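Practice problem 4.
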């Protein structure tokens, strides 16, 4: 008798308190000098990581809406944070739950054509 296939699930992480869920964004694999860096080498030299906020802490709500953002950081924001900061999500190494106090900076990306 064969076993039934494992259930497929989707996990949704809802940060609590002043926290955000961040997806670490990878840079290209070349150093500023043009040398190729193997995976992980670039991150080992960096003091901070670059990430995108994919979920924020929200006020609890009795209504059907999802509640107001209480983290103070907008969902979708690009941020810098210390590479040691945050708690890694066990099933996805690119995700971290990060305290808002650990956010070093919001990063705004402006196309080069718009800077002149």
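Answer key:
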């Amino acid at each position: 008798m064969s076993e039934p296939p494992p259930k497929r699930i989707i996990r949704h992480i809802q940060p609590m308190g002043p926290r955000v869920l961040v997806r670490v964004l990878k840079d290209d694999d070349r150093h500023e000098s043009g040398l190729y860096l193997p995976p992980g080498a670039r991150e080992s030299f960096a003091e901070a990581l670059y990430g995108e906020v994919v979920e924020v802490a929200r006020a609890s709500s009795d209504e059907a809406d999802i509640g107001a953002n209480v983290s103070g950081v907008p969902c979708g924001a690009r941020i810098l944070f210390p590479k040691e900061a945050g708690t890694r999500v066990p099933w996805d190494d690119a995700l971290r739950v990060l305290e808002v106090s650990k956010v070093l900076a919001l990063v705004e990306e402006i196309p080069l054509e718009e800077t002149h």
